[in-house]
Automatic annotation (TrEMBL):
Keywords: Nucleotidyltransferase, Transferase. It comes from the Eukaryota. Its EC number is 2.7.7.9. This is UTP--glucose-1-phosphate uridylyltransferase. It holds the Pfam family UDPGP. It is an enzyme of class 2 (transferase). Substrate binds at residue 192. CDD domains: UGPase_euk (cd00897).
Length: 477
């Protein structure tokens, strides 16, 4: 492996040399950890429930209030959005952050609007930082021109680029550093756990520390609930017990839809993130239990900048390796070594979980999620989505759109307008189905077009607790 990596490094141009050297070193560290791994990364018997005081209630923190001038608090904050992903799973080309999600606004537009509103309201200067990947960097930088007049300083840095390795030989499949031709699928961004090394290597971390910044709020750019929360920021900067927390993870109550989400446990005396990939097969059902593991990680994280710098200098950030097997377009089986940003919680001092409202976790991973955020369930204000007061229950409906809706393009063609879902509990749609304008869905609605059949829901239709089947028979549910 060492020889192969040296050979790859020799193909770097003088301008790429320094960056690729750091990337290759990072990859080697992960690969060595993989080879040294003995047995499972967690022993199930050693898992303990997280102590009561290690996961605090958001309501208690909110009750303390944000007193006095907010501007000094915001002067200590940097916002980082994880922007390395492409929109391919939703049938889009280019960065996922450039998909329109609400009123022609993209994820990136909404993020900029949120921070601009914060800066204007409080006379603050909170910077926005985008962690791009080699997949998203060029397109993102082009689009950033449009925000030049906004009241937000926007910075970018790139996460690392690691070589995919052949499943059989465990050697890199790359022939060189190029990202085109035979090499088009030879490289990958190694998951968001790479943020610590990449942020540090970019020089931005040190710049922010020199400017007096103290905390970074990290979240996925496709989580529309991940806005800057002044209650959490105040709690970090003025802790009630006087002891600063270096790492705060927002968690929220698990529902049946979140059974695979990572959870917080106590392990070897430290707070630790347990992901489903680490769970022995015999205990997977136990892990998914909503009664035993009641909360899951939203990936909204507040981390001390000084602590990141210290741990990077000490080479002390160690995260569990995620082995991600892939089959490439040409049929080759490869392995990607990845890490998750939340897994580093065990490396920080005085780590904490905060059980936040579900409204802070509003990810858009599929067109089913997209229907929710585009609907009248939410209103948009200064880039932030708020659930409508007209919704009687504060829970989000469960929406499952079938494969005919997977791509954004197809989804938009099949909906003349987004249905009214204020009173919806559950929607399942399968097969060749289209919706006319001003359709209202209430309670549980199941629409299934059999193979070869097509169902057109007429404009203005009101479906309440209905099953609509192949030949458009409408049954009470």
């Amino acid at each position: 492996m060492g020889k192969e990596l040296t050979r790859l490094l020799e193909t770097a141009s003088p301008s790429e040399q320094e960056q690729m050297k750091k990337d290759i070193e990072g990859f080697q560290k992960l690969f060595r950890s993989l080879l040294q791994r003995r047995g499972p990364s967690v022993e199930w018997e050693k898992i303990q429930k997280a102590p009561e005081d290690s996961i605090q209630s958001y309501d208690k923190i909110k009750a303390q209030g944000v007193l006095g001038d907010v501007t000094p608090l915001l002067s200590k904050l940097v916002v980082v959005k994880l922007n390395g992903g492409l929109g391919t799973s939703m049938g889009c080309k280019g960065p996922k952050s450039l998909i329109s999600v609400r009123n022609e606004n993209t994820f990136l537009d909404l993020t900029v609007l949120q921070i601009e509103h914060l800066n204007r309201t409080y006379g603050a200067d909170v910077p926005l930082v985008l962690m791009n990947s080699f997949n998203t960097d060029e397109d993102t930088k082009k689009i950033l021109q449009k925000y030049r007049q906004s009241r937000v300083k926007i910075h970018t840095f790139n996460q690392s680029r690691y070589p995919r390795i052949d499943k059989e030989s465990l050697l890199p499949i790359a022939k060189g550093l190029s990202l085109s031709g035979d090499n088009a699928e030879a490289w990958y961004p190694p998951g968001h756990g790479d943020i610590y090394a990449s942020f540090y290597n970019s020089g931005l971390l040190q710049t922010f520390l020199q400017e007096g910044k103290e905390y970074v709020f990290v979240s996925n750019i496709d989580n529309l609930g991940a806005t800057v929360d002044l209650n959490i920021l105040r709690h970090l900067l003025n802790p009630p017990n006087g002891r600063r927390c270096e790492f705060l993870m927002e968690v929220t109550d698990k529902t049946r839809a979140d059974v695979k989400g990572g959870t917080l446990i106590q392990y070897d005396g430290k707070l630790r993130l347990l992901e489903i990939a680490q769970v022995p097969k015999a205990h997977v059902d136990e892990f998914k239990s909503v009664t035993k593991f009641k909360i899951f990680n939203t990936n909204n994280l507040w981390i001390s900048l000084a602590a990141i710098e210290r741990l990077q200098k000490e080479n002390a950030i160690n995260m569990e390796i995620i082995l991600n097997p892939k089959t490439l377009d040409d049929g080759r089986n490869v392995i990607q070594l990845e890490t998750a940003v939340g897994a580093a919680i065990k490396c920080f001092e005085n780590a904490l979980g905060i059980n936040v409202p579900r409204s802070r976790f509003l990810p858009v991973k599929t067109t089913s999620d997209l229907m929710l955020v585009m609907s009248n369930l939410y209103s948009l204000n200064a880039g932030s989505l708020t659930m409508s007061d007209k919704r009687e229950f504060r829970t989000v409906p469960l929406v499952k759109l079938g494969s005919s809706f997977t791509k954004v393009q197809d989804y938009l063609k099949r909906l003349e307008s987004i249905p009214d879902i204020l009173e919806l509990d559950h929607l399942t749609v399968s097969g060749d189905v289209t919706f006319g304008k001003h359709v209202v869905l209430k309670g549980t609605v199941i629409i299934i077009a059999n193979h070869g059949d097509r169902i057109d829901i007429p404009p203005g239709a009101v479906l309440e607790n209905k099953i609509v089947s192949g030949n458009l028979r409408i049954l009470d549910h």
